[in-house]
Design brief:
Structural class: alpha+beta
Distance between the termini: 38 Å
GO cellular component, one term: outer membrane-bounded periplasmic space
GO molecular function, one term: peptide transmembrane transporter activity
CATH superfamily of the largest domain: Dipeptide-binding Protein, Domain 3
Number of helices: 16
Subcellular location: Periplasm
Protein name: Peptide/nickel transport system substrate-binding protein
Low-confidence stretches: 1-18
Oligomer: single chain
Strand order of the largest sheet: 8-9-10-1-11-19-12
Shape: globular
Keywords: Signal
Length: about 525
Amino acid sequence: MRSLMLGAALAAAAASASAQESGGTMVMVTQPEPPNLASYLSTSGPIGQVATKVYEGLVTLGWDFEIQPALAKSWEVSEDGLTVTFNLQDGVTWHDGEAFDSADVQFSIMNVLREVHPRGGATLSIIEAVETPDPLTAVLKLSEPAPYLMVALNGYESPMVAQHVFEGTDIRANETANAPVGTGPFKFVEWQKGQYVRLDKNENYWRDGRPYLDRVVVRFIADASTRTAAMENGELHFAAFGAIPNIDVPRLEEMDSIEVTTKGYEYFAPIMQLQFNVDAKPFDDPAVRRAVATAMDREFVVENIWFGFGKPATGPISSNFAASGIYTADVPSFEVDDRIAAANKMLDDAGYPRGADGVRFSIVHDMTPYGEEWRRFGEYTKQVLAEIGVAAELRYEDVATWLKRVYTDYDYALSSNWLFSMPDPVLGVHRQYHSNQIRPGTVFVNGTKWSSPETDALMDAAKTETDPAARAELYAKFQNIIVEQSPIVFMHELEFTTVYNTKLHNAVSGPLGVYNSFADVWLEQ
């Protein structure tokens, strides 16, 4: 397992104000090209990498997850935890010139994020109302205390949108999905499909002197070797979330003009997984799901497909939560000496004999359409399944088609995937397992269709439990049930790299990483 590479990201972030320069065009690469720029509608990773430069949240986050001002300059939480009062920044305008005010906050939370955002439907459900006593005051009324709420109100997780742009329209079909109008440091200019998105400096940005950059160009380069070459020759300044293949990272790291860091992913705690459609035969049978979980070699996948960037996962909650007590490794284990023999026996015992051709049953494996590692993982999975008598056809589609297949039509049997665990299980974990998160048309929620009154009750109790020990006990029971029933095969906790040019400063300035606004990023001319 590869150790963290801290790089020089923090040193760059500490550059003195006197050294900062204004101007220049920063060129970043996002892989794959996003299906849209509607971060209020989808948490697809590439969308947020672009949209967070345009849309902002009420708050942002420091390195230790301290809550910092953004569109809200200050806030107060009532003693009973049921009222949160936000005092908004004065003089903020949308990119079309209209004023931003508390009515936009009310509309964003109640009419957009709670209704169509993949995680907002769960995390913001405790907000019963948003009162607007004046244009610069928004008062959130909660049904119960929610200690996880503030960390979820950043620009990536809860982008504020313009009421005058969305009101009276179909939120899911609004044309702003491909031409966003926000309050952020950069304004959307154009999207040349298959090539780039251009964002220009917001000259009327509410933070004086920001942004430093004149422009951010987000390029889409399908070929991995071309992305690496473009970074090497200085055409690209920034690449996150594995846009530069792990196999090329060590060589680029040796160059004086390039830095590599694994910082900037602390907010996300991503887990890579295989997920089953538990309504589709034969994966409606837990024994079959456990057999697949047993056959997969997690260490092999980490070392040989992700080149050491990650560590085996044990269940639905990341080991990042170990310090809080929420994570437990005391769950059923699929680590056995002879994986293939054990998995074959499990399928025999479950009543799935091999036919004359050695095949027990055939499936289609839908691969995550995010690049070369996922193709290689698909090929590995096909080989492993063949060893246990399962014939797997590989299918690799564009992002939009894959998302619709998995989260709208449920027209799949087995898919690779990875989802963010987020800073609290309520934000990132519940959405994958709670029955109320089977929401056709909403992406990155419960796509397995797993439903259990017992695990629903455990999540509901943990959501409001304020005693750390009691909360940990609830989540321990939850993890044990999920692993034993295996609606998902937990492969590994992903470790991503960010590769950037040393001329770029403040490139990684907090736990949100590439999902920061880049208002403080500057480029040596």
